[in-house]
Structure formats: structure tokens, C-alpha cells
Design brief:
The chain is of the alpha/beta class. Helix content is 36%, strand content 16%. The strands form four sheets. A six-stranded parallel β-sheet has the order 3-4-2-1-5-6, sandwiched between helices. Bound molecules: adenosine monophosphate. Adenosine monophosphate (AMP) binds next to strand 14 and helix 13.
């Protein structure tokens, strides 16, 4: 499916291999990793390279240090966790392209791995500065990109460096693109897309791209109120993007013309204020009282959406059905997660909030694929080319 070279297409024995991972893990106040999923996700690629006798030089960004050395964003906790997971000490350089990184890279033994500091300690990283990319490249003889979560960014360590080295992808990127690419190109039908979340503007590209491909498009979350408005409905004090109402009307027409079944909420769980403990009033479709705001899909909508999901061949889901951070308004999101988990469909969960919801609810192992990149998977579903993948060598 993916027409880019992978780590299996290139000889890495005794070679210094620069591997761009996404080690941007969440830390607590004490600087401890609270979820090491991203580190564990990168292990198949790292272990494969080690087993082939490569000298592995790992790099990543962490947080937003704004182009300056700031030890709050040091990869030290990552080096520690990697050492535990790999069973040998993964040394951390004091810098990114400086003397420490150069020395560590040069002295790395075959079958061992080292880590250089946060690539975003240099402002040139996010600017994709060629001189900086060249310096990074000089640490190694081969480049591997496995940071799917940042592959939608054209940065020096995700794209620029590929100008100076043979460049291939790792297993994580390969898996992401293969699973999502197949779903888009040759889906098992019916193909159902579920889109939710806060803003139409964030998801518009995906909606437009999916209209030509899916059989059913389900829209929940705050986005639905902009569509309700476009149909002349009453939305009370719900979150509506006034400047996107025309666009929503356009999408309704496009979906109709394409013969796509567009499912919008038929009822809404509302409240007087944006509050976790607010009292719930269920309003009918397009008829939210003036003093109420929609915060979740209503019970009839839950049934409607879940019925469509039950019979799906392929499901792609991105964005919660309501303010799922408030347990009272997480009912719709939970029901959808359960329906997707229990269906026989090939299920693909876009990263971000929907991935978090699925994991919190314990359905992760029931899904075919949970993307490791929220923004990157959205852009992929929009049909955009991801610079971090485009930069790699063709097969
Ligand atoms: P996104 O990042 O676009 O996927 O949006 C996720 C956010 O949308 C979550 O923080 C939800 O709380 C929010 N959201 C979903 N439904 C609603 C709603 N009905 N009103 C306000 N915010 C919502």
C-alpha cells in the first residue's frame, strides 16, 4: 500500500541510523512520565534495527521549548524509560547537534541505541532549516522516520533531514498508512465515518474528502449545532460557528448529491450552563430552548448512531459526541465507543480525544487501529500529503 521504502528495504548493519520517534509523552509536575504509550509504540522499529546490528541514534521533540535549551523539556525521562524497556542503558546527549551528540553518535556500538536531546531546543527545527537538517543528518548514514504524530509537519527532523540521507519509514508509520490508506481506498462496506468534537472548521477538510467515499456520515459533538442552524433549527446558547453556517449548508447539499446518508442528532442533552454538574434537559432536534446549550447527543440519537455503527463494515471515528470531560455528558461518546468496539467492523480511531476516550473506557484492544497522531491522522483522512512521509525514498 505504502509506496515508500521501509526499514526492511535497507541495509543497516553496522550503520549509524538516525531514527525520528515521537517521544512527546505526558509528564507530571515531578517530571515523571504518566503514559509511556508513545515510547512503547516505537519499540518494534527500534528493536528491529538493533537486531540487524544498527547503531541507533534516536531523536524526538518534547513539548514546546520554543527553540531554546530548557531542561524542563529534556528527554531525560525518556532515556530512563527507554533504558528500562530495552534492557540496557540508553545514554542521552547533552545537546542536539553539538559536541556531545556527535561524540555519542560516533561511539555508539552496533546493536545499541543512544538518544540526542529535544530537537526543538533549536528554532531551526520547526523552520526546517537546511543547515540544521544537514548537521542532524551528519550524525548518521541512514534516516528512519517513525514519528507518525509529527509527520504532518515539515520540520528538519521529520522531513529536511531526508535530503541528505537514504530515508525510509519505520513500522509505526507503515502500519498507520497501510490501515488508514486501505480503509479509504478499498473499504469494507458499509463505510461509516463518525465525526465529532468542537469545531466544524477543524474537520471540514475531512468531511469533504469523506463525502465521496463513505456510505454514512455521522456528525455529533458541538459541530452538529452549526448544521442544525444551517437547517434553520433553534440552537439556544449552544456553541455554533456562525461563519460556518453557509459551509454546513453546502456540505448538506454535497452529501445529498453524492447519495451519502448523513446522520445528524435527532435529540440533544442540554444544560443551562457549561458545568459538570448541570441539570440535563433533553431537547428535540433543531429545537433547543433559548436558555439552553447542547452538551451531548440525546438518547434517541444514541440509538440512531449505534444502529448505523452496528452494521458497518468499516468505521472511522474522530471527535467526541459531547463534552465527554464531564461524566454526565460523556454518555453519547461512551455509547459510540461501545458500539464501535462491539461491531465486527474494521475500526479506526483518529488520535486525540476519541483515542483517549476509547482507552479510558477499556475498549482499546477491541479496535482494529488507534492512530498515534491526532493532527496527522486528520490530515491523512483529509487526503493531504504528509510531508514527513513524502520526503522518504520511494520503493
Ligand atoms: P476536537 O478537539 O475538535 O475533537 O474537540 C474536542 C472537544 O470538543 C472536547 O473537549 C469536547 O468537550 C468538545 N465538545 C464536544 N461536544 C461539545 C458540545 N456539545 N459543546 C461544547 N464542546 C463540545
Amino acid at each position: 500500500m505504502l509506496n515508500k521504502k521501509t526499514i526492511e528495504d535497507i541495509d543497516v548493519q553496522n550503520k549509524r541510523v538516525l531514527v525520528r520517534c515521537d517521544f512527546n509523552v505526558p509528564l507530571n509536575e515531578a517530571g515523571e512520565i504518566t503514559d509511556d504509550k508513545r515510547i512503547r509504540e516505537s519499540l518494534p522499529t527500534i528493536k528491529y534495527l538493533l537486531s540487524k546490528g544498527a547503531k541507533v541514534i534516536l531523536c524526538s521533540h518534547m513539548g514546546r521549548p520554543k527553540g531554546e535549551f530548557n531542561m524542563k523539556y529534556s528527554l531525560a525521562p525518556v532515556a530512563k524509560r527507554l533504558s528500562e524497556l530495552l534492557g540496557f542503558e540508553v545514554k542521552l546527549a547533552k545537546d542536539v547537534i553539538g559536541p556531545s551528540a556527535k561524540e555519542l553518535a560516533a561511539s555508539c556500538e552496533s546493536g545499541k541505541a543512544v538518544l540526542i536531546e529535544n530537537v526543538r531546543f533549536h528554532k531551526e527545527e520547526e523552520k526546517n532549516d537546511p543547515a540544521f537538517a544537514k548537521e542532524l543528518a551528519s550524525l548518521a548514514e541512514v534516516y528512519v522516520n517513525d514519528a507518525f504524530g509529527t509527520s504532518h509537519r515539515a520540520h528538519a527532523s521529520t522531513a529536511g533531514v531526508a535530503d541528505y540521507l537514504p530515508a525510509v519509514c519505520g513500522y509505526l508509520i507503515q502500519k498507520e498508512i497501510d490501515v488508514m490508506g486501505k480503509a479509504l481506498a478499498d473499504p469494507k462496506r458499509p463505510f461509516v465515518a463518525i465525526l465529532g468534537g468542537a469545531k466544524v472548521s477543524d474537520k471540514i477538510g475531512v468531511i469533504v474528502n469523506l463525502i465521496g467515499k463513505v456510505d454514512t456520515l455521522i456528525i455529533g459533538g458541538a459541530m452538529a449545532y452549526t448544521f442544525a442552524k444551517a437547517q434553520g433549527g433553534k440552537t439556544g446558547i449552544s456553541r455554533v460557528e456562525e461563519d460556518k453556517v453557509d459551509l454546513a449548508r453546502d456540505i448538506l447539499a454535497k452529501a445529498k448529491a453524492a447519495g451519502v446518508k448523513l446522520l445528524l442528532p435527532v435529540d440533544t442533552a442540554c444544560a443551562k450552563e457549561f458545568d459538570a454538574n448541570a441539570e440535563i434537559t433533553v431537547c428535540e432536534e433543531n429545537n433547543i430552548a433559548d436558555d439552553l446549550m447542547g452538551l451531548d447527543i440525546g438518547p434517541k440519537t444514541v440509538d440512531l448512531f449505534c444502529e448505523a455503527i452496528k452494521n458497518a463494515g468499516t468505521v472511522v471515528w474522530n471527535g467526541p459526541m459531547g463534552v465527554f470531560e464531564f461524566p454526565r455528558f460523556a454518555v453519547g461518546t461512551k455509547a459510540v465507543a461501545k458500539a464501535v468496539a462491539e461491531s465486527d467492523a474494521i475500526s479506526i480511531i483518529g488520535g486525540g480525544d476519541s483515542a483517549a476516550a476509547v482507552e479510558q473506557l477499556g475498549y482499546a484492544d477491541k479496535m482494529t487501529h488507534i492512530s498515534t497522531g491526532g493532527g496527522a491522522s486528520l490530515e491523512f483522512l483529509e487526503g493531504k500529503e504528509l510531508p514527513g512521509i513524502m520526503a522518504l525514498n520511494d520503493k
